[in-house]
Design goal:
Elements lengths: L5 E5 L6 H15 L3 E7 L4 H12 L9 E5 L6 H5 L2 H13 L5 E5 L16 E7 L6 H4 L2 H5 L2 E5 L4 H4 L3 H12 L4 E3 L8 H12 L6 H9 L1
Parallel strand pairs: 1-4, 1-5, 2-3, 2-4, 5-6, 6-7
Helix pairs in contact: 1-2, 1-9
C-alpha cells in the first residue's frame, strides 16, 4: 500500500496548533500539494469543524471530507502515542482510497509538555508552544520540546506584552535542543510560517514536487 507522509503536530491548549495548520495548508496547496487533516480532541470536533469551514468550505483548498475530526474520549496524547489505532485506521483508509494525497497532517489534542507522537503514526513531529506561556517554556524541556523534529515558538507578537524575552528563549532552545531546529512564528501575520513550509518540503516531502505534477510528466 502507498505510504503517504505524515506530520504530527502537538502542543498545549491554545498554543496555536489549528491556526498553524490553517496557515500552512494554503501555502502548500498553492504549490500544488494535496493534503488531508486529522484533528484529535477529547470530547469535541470543534477544531476540525473550524478548519473544514475555513479551508474547505470557504476557500476550497481541499475537499471537505479531507478534514476529519476524532473525539478520542481520553487523555489527549493517548490516541497519538500509546494507542494510535483510531488514527492508523483512518490513515489506512486514506492510503487505499486517496493515493493522490501528498501529505497527512495529524493534530493532537491539547496537552502538556510531555506530548509526543508514536513513530508508527507520524514520520515527522512538530511541537508548538507560545510566547504567552512565558519565556521559561523552552528551558523547562519535556519530551515534546526536546524530542520533536521541529520546535515552533508561536505568538512572538505578544512577547513585549507578557514580558517574555525572545533572545532568552532562543538561547534556551539552542541549549536544550542542541542541533535540532526551531522557528519563531506569528500565525496572525504569517511571519516565519514560510520557514515551516520549507522544513516540510525538504524534511518530509524530500523536495519532491506534488504527485499531480509528477503524474502529468508521466502522461506526457
Amino acid at each position: 500500500m502507498n505510504h503517504i507522509p505524515r506530520i504530527g503536530i502537538g502542543g498545549p491548549v491554545g498554543s496555536g496548533k489549528s491556526m498553524l495548520i490553517e496557515r500552512l495548508v494554503p501555502m502548500l496547496a498553492k504549490i500544488g500539494y494535496s493534503i488531508s487533516i486529522i484533528s484529535n480532541d477529547v470530547i469535541s470536533k470543534e477544531d476540525a469543524d473550524r478548519m473544514r469551514t475555513n479551508l474547505a468550505t470557504k476557500r476550497g483548498l481541499l475537499p471537505e471530507n479531507m478534514v476529519i475530526g476524532l473525539a478520542t474520549g481520553g487523555c489527549p496524547h493517548t490516541a497519538v502515542r500509546e494507542d494510535p489505532s483510531m488514527n492508523l485506521s483512518i490513515i489506512e483508509e486514506m492510503e487505499e482510497n486517496h493515493p493522490e494525497l501528498d501529505l497527512i497532517i495529524i493534530e493532537s489534542g491539547g496537552d502538556n509538555i510531555t506530548t509526543t507522537f508514536s513513530p508508527i503514526l507520524a514520520d515527522y513531529f512538530m511541537y508548538i508552544i507560545d510566547v504567552a506561556g512565558g519565556d521559561k517554556y523552552p528551558r523547562k524541556g519535556g519530551l515534546g520540546i526536546e524530542s520533536c523534529d521541529l520546535l515552533v515558538i508561536n505568538k512572538i507578537d505578544l512577547a513585549e506584552l507578557v514580558g517574555a524575552n525572545l533572545e532568552s528563549m532562543k538561547k534556551d532552545a539552542e541549549k536544550i535542543r542542541k542541533e535540532k531546529p526551531f522557528e519563531f512564528i506569528n500565525c496572525k501575520t504569517d511571519q516565519g510560517v514560510k520557514d515551516i513550509v520549507e522544513h516540510i518540503i525538504h524534511d518530509v516531502l524530500f523536495d519532491l514536487p506534488p504527485k499531480s505534477i509528477r503524474s502529468e510528466k508521466v502522461q506526457i
